Structure to design on (169 residues):
């Protein structure tokens, strides 16, 4: 296994995270159909909160010292009728590093760093993500999780309701 680390994103590395978020949002736009802004960017409206609020954590996924993606965790619930400690706000692994166990290892480490009740929403049309999270959450929890498909009030920009996982780490 390669050397994989989660490294907390510092304020001075904001632009690097913003650049990676653009790649993530571009890829995700094939499912949520989000439009770019007049500058040709998707933008991430919550980015600055990761450097000013205590209930948000952003980590770079590093593989052998190289940027491989990011993990963004928050304490705000995706759905408000379920108790939660953490939510996976964003998760992205660059194509070069996919299907090598790196994503799972980054997820496992994030879950170990943030122990408690989790919520994780995904777009059901993003089939690679559906398979990744099903396998990863099942492995992490040894099958002890709940998946609610088309959870009310979790619609993406394209109108598709999100599927939401509930699990503990």
């Amino acid at each position: 296994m390669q050397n994989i680390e989660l490294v907390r994103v510092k304020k001075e590395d904001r632009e690097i995270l913003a650049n990676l978020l653009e790649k993530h949002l571009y890829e995700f736009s094939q499912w949520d159909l989000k439009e770019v802004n007049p500058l040709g960017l998707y933008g991430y409206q919550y980015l600055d909160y990761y450097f000013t609020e205590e209930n948000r954590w952003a980590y770079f996924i590093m593989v052998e010292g190289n940027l491989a993606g990011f993990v963004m965790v928050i304490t705000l619930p995706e759905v408000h009728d379920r108790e939660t400690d953490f939510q996976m706000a964003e998760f992205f692994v660059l194509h070069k590093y996919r299907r090598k166990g790196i994503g799972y290892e980054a997820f496992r480490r994030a879950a170990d760093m943030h122990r408690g009740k989790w919520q994780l929403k995904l777009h059901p049309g993003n089939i690679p993500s559906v398979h990744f999270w099903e396998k990863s959450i099942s492995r992490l929890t040894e099958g002890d999780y709940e998946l609610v498909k088309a959870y009310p009030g979790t619609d993406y920009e394209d109108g598709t309701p999100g599927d939401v996982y509930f699990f503990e780490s």
